[in-house]
Write a structure and sequence with these properties.
Layout lengths: L1 E2 L20 H18 L4 E8 L4 E8 L10 E3 L3 H8 L4 E3 L10 E2 L9 E9 L2 E10 L7 H29 L16 E4 L1 E2 L4 E8 L2 H6 L15 H22 L9 H6 L6 H9 L4 H17 L4 H4 L1 H17 L12 E5 L4 H11 E6 L6 H9 L4 E3 L13 E5 L4 E4 L3 H19 L7 E2 L5 E8 L4 H7 L5 E5 L2 H4 L7 H14 L5 E4 L26 H7 L1 H18 L4 E5 L5 H22 L8 E6 L8 H7 L2 E4 L1 H9 L17 H16 L4 E3 L10 H6 L4 E4 L4 H8 L4 H12 L4 H16 L1
Parallel strand pairs: 1-6, 11-12, 12-13, 13-14, 18-19, 18-25, 19-20, 20-21, 21-22, 22-23, 23-24
Antiparallel strand pairs: 2-3, 2-8, 3-4, 5-7, 7-8, 9-16, 10-14, 11-15, 15-16, 17-18
């Protein structure tokens, strides 16, 4: 098919341009450099960078190398038109060594490519947003190698994020204190506050107040006075950049899932003429540094918040965060001191993204928030990092001076300021006892019952940092990696390249033991704000887990391809994929079909190299599958029982609801009998079956699970030593009899009697 290129005098509007206003020179230079990078890095004869306009649903060639007529003529394509348009419409890379033979191929008169038949088009995507396409061509007979295509995909993902942030910055660029007296109510004596625990544990250390709260007030519309700056604006910018680089280096090892929270836009803004440049002009005209920072930041924040484009609106928090860091470095007396190096307990009104990253650096041993609740990503982060956190509704805590000794005790819901001698002695004894317990635990490489039957103990992990605990506990693999954490920690969907890097890191750190990746389990109590725009009346029964993934297949396919590429990179045959919340055979078969399609896509990149296909399993969480369990066992490679949701759905009880939580009885006879049916079906069909819910760590239930035939348990690393010791104290015959006794009971009270009798007989 032939098509005449559009004249350059009427270019399509740039994507993301609200009202059509984008500073052209800065963006043109940015895109030209990007096209040049691809052209040189991959040695192609022609490279084109197309940007997409969501309103017109058109792609326009915006930067190019090897297009002789570029600048005199351009190319404008509808979404789905030509190979470039197809790549973006279908959200996949298109590669061919005979472009003219491909369905939908278009020959542009002003840009003939008869001699350039080796063609690669990679879509530029950022979550749900279509950004554009990068296309590369080589002379016929000069193919792109598989590793070149993989590398190009990674660079394309980086470019998509950079363009997204550049759009936001350039659009905004084109658009036109309260201080508390410290210690005012603390008398010096011990003071105890009651609070609500968000995570477990306790800690004793000096406190630090996060300073963002007062500085945030300076970004309000009316400010009585600005603090005096102790540094010039250039010194301030350099110091912020230095701090961000230091945190980035630490996070790369400790919490790579959150790496994108150091938004690329932050670095860009620190060098952006429309942001820092405007501050510099204000300062040159006599405006004080702090006021200049606030004035410009305030305009950007207001502009972003009124945007109709979601990813631009989300930049408001980034700007607020960066403004606070600039103010902090400009006005603090000694920001280079290492006051945060010692372990400390944070007291804050709220936490900004930068604060969350400071927490992840490893020096925070406790958190007290004085108002509201915690966001989902903060809660998951502190739980994964084993940091005690409480909400204490007492704003006067914000006046507590830094370096006061405090104790946070989540188990008892207490926050103690300036503990007295008796309290200190009590907690010091508690610390000594816990250290003694840990020192007395001897962990074996394998777990066996008293009569020598092997029980495999795997680890459940949320973040890569959990792997260290799994290794210390001598876990025999990862039975559940919850992949939602990288999604929760971001403001937009993690790119395919980001996900692949995380999954590869997991395989690197667990090099010789099996790993099970659970696909995205979004929804329910794991709400990801940028994915769920409307609040459901009953999210536990709504669009969540596999339902969500099948409704938005491009999100599922991105994740599957990322996992598959990580598997191929490390040539691992012990990696599995598990789908959560499966309720029917149709759902599971649809999910498996996506895996097969993604394997074909990855195979096309690898060429003649064998594609290692992972085992595909079902997470048993919904009671509806019990009625089809035999057929499900036939088409699944393995089962993993998620008892937390299984019990909730079986009993129709929200365990988080205090009005009915006492009805959430894990040992309900219907639950126990259903678990027996599931285990029996897996065993009949020769399929592995494990458990990954909290039931698998409870001493009263572990012998029952062994008794119904389970030989693999997956639990939090901290519970593995206790489970191993427990299992070594009973025989399989004892467990089987225990299971028979429990399954024979019709009443909960009778079951509890059997449990009590067994614990007395076995453990004394």
């Amino acid at each position: 098919m032939n098509k005449t290129a559009a004249p350059a005098t009427s270019p399509a509007p740039a994507p993301g341009a609200e009202g059509g206003a984008l500073p052209p020179d800065a963006k043109r230079q940015f895109l030209d450099q990007a096209a040049g990078t691809f052209h040189e890095s991959f040695g192609c004869d022609r490279c084109g960078l197309y940007l997409y306009d969501d309103e017109t649903r058109e792609l326009a060639l915006r930067a190019a190398r090897g297009y002789e007529m570029f600048g005199k003529a351009s190319i404008v394509l509808k979404l789905g038109e030509g190979l470039v348009g197809r790549a973006l419409a279908e959200r996949r890379a298109i590669y061919t060594e005979a472009a003219a033979t491909m369905p939908g191929y278009i020959r542009h008169h002003n840009f003939p490519d008869d001699h350039l038949q080796t063609f690669l088009a990679i879509p530029l995507l950022s979550g749900k947003e279509r950004i554009g396409v990068v296309s590369m061509q080589r002379k016929s007979g000069t193919p792109f190698q598989a590793e070149e295509i993989s590398s190009a995909r990674l660079k394309a993902a980086e470019l998509a994020a950079a363009i997204q942030n550049a759009n936001a910055l350039l659009i905004a660029g084109g658009a036109a204190g309260r201080h508390s007296e410290p210690g005012k109510f603390f008398t010096g004596a011990e003071t105890v506050f009651n609070g609500n625990a968000v995570s477990n544990g306790w800690a004793m250390a000096e406190c630090r107040r996060f300073s963002a709260n007062g500085l945030c007030d300076l970004l309000a519309e009316k400010v009585a006075a600005y603090p005096e700056a102790r540094r010039s604006l250039p010194e301030t910018v350099a110091l912020v950049e230095k701090r961000m680089a230091a945190i980035s280096k630490t996070l790369d090892e400790r919490l790579p899932e959150a790496a994108s929270m150091l938004f690329e836009s932050t670095t860009m803004m620190l060098h952006d003429e429309n942001f820092i440049g405007r501050m510099e002009k204000l300062v040159a005209d006599g405006t004080p540094v702090a006021e200049a920072i606030c004035s410009v930041s305030r305009e950007f924040i207001a502009f972003f918040r009124q945007s109709n484009t979601e990813y631009i609106k989300e930049k408001a928090q980034d700007v607020e965060d960066l403004a606070v860091r600039l103010l902090e470095c400009a006005t603090q007396a000694s920001p280079d001191d290492n006051s945060d190096a010692a372990p400390h307990i944070v007291i804050a009104e709220r936490l900004l993204p930068y604060d969350v990253l400071r927490i992840a650096q490893g020096n925070v041993c406790g958190i007290v928030l004085v108002s509201g609740g915690s966001t989902a990503h903060v809660t998951l982060l502190v739980r994964s990092l084993k940091i005690p956190m409480m909400i204490v509704p007492e704003r006067d805590l914000l006046t507590l001076p830094d370096r006061e000794l405090v104790i946070i005790d989540c188990a008892n819901g207490r926050f103690i300021v300036r503990p007295g001698a008796d309290t200190l002695k009590q907690y010091e004894q508690r610390l000594a006892a816990e250290r003694g317990e840990r020192a007395g635990v001897s962990i074996q490489n394998q777990t066996h019952t008293q009569d020598g039957v092997r029980i495999t103990l795997l680890a459940n992990i949320n973040i890569i940092a959990d792997i260290a605990g799994a290794i210390d506990a001598k876990a025999e693999g990862i039975g559940l990696y919850r992949t939602e954490f990288p999604f929760i920690m971001r403001q937009t969907l993690p790119g395919e390249a980001d996900q692949q890097a995380i999954y590869s890191r997991i395989l690197e750190r667990m090099p010789d033991k099996p790993v099970v990746f659970r696909t995205l389990d979004a929804g329910g109590d794991k709400v990801i704000p940028y994915l769920f725009k409307t609040q459901e009346e009953n999210p536990a029964l709504g669009l969540r887990s596999i339902r969500f993934s099948l409704k938005y297949p491009y999100i599922l396919d991105q994740q599957l391809r990322a996992i598959l590429r990580a598997i191929q990179k490390h040539r691992r045959r012990d990696v599995s994929i598990m789908f959560p919340m499966v309720s029917s055979l149709e759902e599971f078969e649809a999910a498996k079909a996506h895996v097969a399609s993604c394997i074909e896509s990855v195979h096309a990149e690898l060429g003649d190299v064998e594609v290692i296909a992972p085992k595909i399993g079902t997470m048993i969480e919904i009671p509806s599958v019990v009625g089809i369990i035999d057929r499900l066992a036939e088409i699944s490679d393995f089962f993993s029982i998620g008892t937390n949701d299984f019990v909730q759905y079986m009993l129709a009880v929200d365990r988080g609801n205090p009005n009915v939580s006492e009805l959430s009885v894990t040992h309900h006879p219907a639950v126990l009998r259903a678990l027996k049916l599931i285990a029996a079906a897996a065993i009949r069909h020769g399929k592995p079956v494990s458990i990954c819910g909290e039931m698998g760590r409870e001493p009263r239930y572990i012998p029952f699970l062994v008794g119904i035939g389970l030989r693999t348990l997956s639990l939090e690393p901290s519970h593995i030593p206790t489970a191993q010791q427990l299992i070594s104290r009973f025989t399989v015959a004892q467990c089987e009899q225990y299971a028979r006794d429990l399954l024979a009971c019709d009443y909960i009270a009778d079951i509890e009697g059997v449990i009590d009798a067994f614990e007395t007989d076995v453990f004394g």
